[in-house]
Every structure is written in C-alpha cells, then in structure tokens.
C-alpha cells in the first residue's frame, strides 16, 4: 500500500504532510493502581450527595479539569428515542442536580413528554465518573430569574437571542439580534428581563453510581439507589445507606 499524503493551506502556503493512521483499538490509558482502589470503607457519606460533594470538590481542585461541572445529559422522547448533550451543572444538594437551558430546545421538548433523564460526569485525570438516573422537575421562576441575572451580561443577551435547537439561516441572524439587544440593554443600571423561554431544571435522582477506573480493569463501582418496595438490605450485597438510600457494589 503506498504512503498517503494530505495537502492543506497554511499562511497561503500549500503544505504536504504524511497522513497518520490512528489505531483507535490500541488507545488506552492507565487507570489507578491497586493501592488506590475505591472501597466501601472509602465512602465519605452513606448517601450520594455527600459522596458527590467529595468527588466534585476534588475534581474542582485539579487545574487540568477545566469544566468539572460539565455533564452529559440524556433525554428521550415518549417512545424512547434517546438524545444526549453536555450541559453545565449549576448546583447540587440533597434535592438533586441543577442545570439551565432553553425551554423551547430539543431537550426541553423531550422532557415535557418524558421526564426521565440520565446524566454522567467524567473526570479523566481522576479516572472517575458519576452516573445519575432520575426524573426532572422545573426550577421555580424565581430561582431561574436569580440565576439568569447572576450570569455575565453578554451571556444573558446570548440567551435572549437564541431560539435553541431551531434551524437558522446564518450566524449573522444571531449577530443582528444580539446587536439590537445590546443597543437596548448595554446601559448601566438597565436589567435584561429573563425571557420566559429560558430557565432551570432539577434532576431528582433515584440512582447515583460512583465509578473509578482501575489499572487492572477491575474497576470499582458503588451504586446508591432507592430501595424497591419491601426490599431489605442483607448487608452482603445490599447495604443500608442514609436518608432512604441503599448501596451496592457492581461488577465492572
Ligand atoms: C461543555 C458544554 C457545556 C454546555 N452547557 C450547556 C448548558 O448549561 N445549557 C445549555 O442549554 N446548553 C449547553 N451546552 C450546549 C448543549 O450541549 C447543546 O448544544 C444545547 O443545549 C442544545 O441541545 P438540544 O438541542 O439537545 O436541546 C453545552 C455544551 C458543552 C459542550
């Protein structure tokens, strides 16, 4: 087979470089060593939110992780057609995980007909992932307004210009809308009203799994979930947690 080359223009010069073939099958990184396993005794909390806080704060302390709050959110239509995208988690606590978006977007339309969601965080440098399953609730208008006005003004304007997920003729259309809004609102003391089509959601989890990748591929998985009706922890496979949660170790 002859060597393949590709040509491209850089600073008005035509460059020729050898085409690299990437071996995806051979791609793998080294996860954590045996002495760094994630065992039940390492849980800092017997309910998922305290455990999430510990892992999330560790992720935030690592400068290599630029957006520790980025999570992949999966939604589905009422007949189960899934879709996934990243959003930024903007709060978490005993109630669940919050994010903000456009209420006219594809995800929002799917959430209207099917409130079930899944979300995952992945912090590569820590070899850790958190996996959430639950249902969605809209945040109150007051909370959405408060968060909207905490954002930088250009972000507020951008939220007003975008009818998210709808087809648009060109980028210029957005820039024109932005200009009009900037002229109207980039004035000191003038507040941009939050559009009715923008706001937040809360994911109320029924399961939260903590995954840690191990070098020997015997990865650690500890899953918190709400118990099924009548289910009693046997303290062998299923353990009693706190605040109505149980937890179990899953095979990798
Ligand atoms: C790292 C990252 C963070 C994002 N955060 C948000 C967000 O918080 N809210 C949002 O509406 N879109 C966010 N987006 C854009 C979404 O991924 C997506 O393009 C948009 O929400 C439209 O999705 P939909 O058509 O499925 O509704 C983010 C994208 C990336 C890559």
From TrEMBL:
Broad class of enzyme this protein falls into: oxidoreductase
Protein name, UniProt field: pyridoxal 5'-phosphate synthase
Organism domain of life: Eukaryota
Protein's organism: Vanessa tameamea
UniProt-listed SUPFAM superfamilies: FMN-binding split barrel
PANTHER family in UniProt: PYRIDOXINE-5'-PHOSPHATE OXIDASE, PYRIDOXINE-5-PHOSPHATE OXIDASE
Family according to the record: Belongs to the pyridoxamine 5'-phosphate oxidase family.
Cofactor: FMN
High-level lineage: Eukaryota, Metazoa, Ecdysozoa, Arthropoda, Hexapoda
Pathway assigned in UniProt: Cofactor metabolism; pyridoxal 5'-phosphate salvage; pyridoxal 5'-phosphate from pyridoxine 5'-phosphate: step 1/1; Cofactor metabolism; pyridoxal 5'-phosphate salvage; pyridoxal 5'-phosphate from pyridoxamine 5'-phosphate: step 1/1
